[in-house]
């Protein structure tokens, strides 16, 4: 599985950039743990645990910072 | 639900930028966990746990850093 | 309650910038949890727990990085 | 073991940059803990624990931010 | 107690910049928790807990990033 | 003990820069906790705990981001 869908950080809009940030964060997890059964079991845990939801959103925020800079903040 | 309300990082003032940062952090959570019942239960937990309140404010700080840079710090 | 006291990131000195960073971090918490009783109880916990004091200082460091950049490091 | 494969941050594409980010994160761990038995046992733990998978993806996101800036975001 | 000793981020050398980073991190803690007895008890805890030592060094790294940028990396 | 070996962030190569990042992270710990017995005991803990290994690599990633910027990414 590719790490960066489309192999580019350039997106037309901030919304697309935000989607890409979510994808990058997820694809990192897939790269570290490719077993879908393990991931599915884990998803039931982290998506219902506030602390882990916050930690996930933290990673998205950092990925988005990179993508936003790559797109010169869509200015 | 959109990830970035208004599909732009540009805001008129720092205060609006800070509100957007809070929204981005929240919308990440909604994107990862769309079930409102789960979110409502989780909210009762994280908003009364200092460690998780601090972790939430941490994400807001990172989102705000991106938005502030996007607006050239409203200089 | 406003998120950014004075609705500006510009301060005259680094010391004022650091105070603003502390305020931004706190005001995020107030925005997420407006109930003062909950906050007061939480304060007794996190201000006496080294791990949470460190986590708080971490958020201040990130807010300050943004404010310092906004003020071109007061050079 | 080298810390930076190829001793360069420059990559041809974002995908290669992302791979390098994963490698940098892993090579840090090897440098801190060279014992492969310890690492193998640890891998079984962190790759099945959502919290640690998220923490790992967090490090990748930071490494990638550096590599992306090094490559001027492959613009 | 002042938050930023000397009310400036400018230092003559990286070593002085690193010292300032350590001071900023500590002064944040003092600002959040001014009670010296609480701090002394906490110090015995976090300076003997690897996880909290690592978390402390994490804050120093972020403060240093800001100070290094403020000094244009002493180039 | 000095905080920054060589009192400079400039290195000839990324690999040297990465080594410096590891050293900066370690020297922060020494500065916070100078007692070698405590450090040795702690090392046995954090180098065999995946969560703390990940947290350590996180600090290295941040230190490296600063050093890479200081060296203009060795471009």
Automatic annotation (TrEMBL), chains A, B, C, D, E, F:
Gene3D superfamilies: Hexameric tyrosine-coordinated heme protein (HTHP). It comes from the Bacteria. InterPro entries: Hexamer_Tyr-coord_heme_pr_HTHP, HTHP_sf. Pfam families: HTHP. This is Hexameric tyrosine-coordinated heme protein. It comes from Arthrobacter koreensis.
């Amino acid at each position: 599985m590719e790490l960066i869908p489309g192999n580019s950080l350039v997106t037309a809009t901030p919304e697309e950039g935000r989607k890409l940030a979510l994808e990058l964060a997820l694809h990192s997890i897939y790269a570290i743990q490719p077993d879908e059964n393990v991931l599915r079991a884990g998803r039931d845990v982290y998506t219902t645990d506030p602390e882990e939801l916050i930690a996930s959103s933290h990673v998205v925020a950092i990925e988005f910072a990179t993508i936003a800079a790559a797109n010169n903040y869509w200015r």
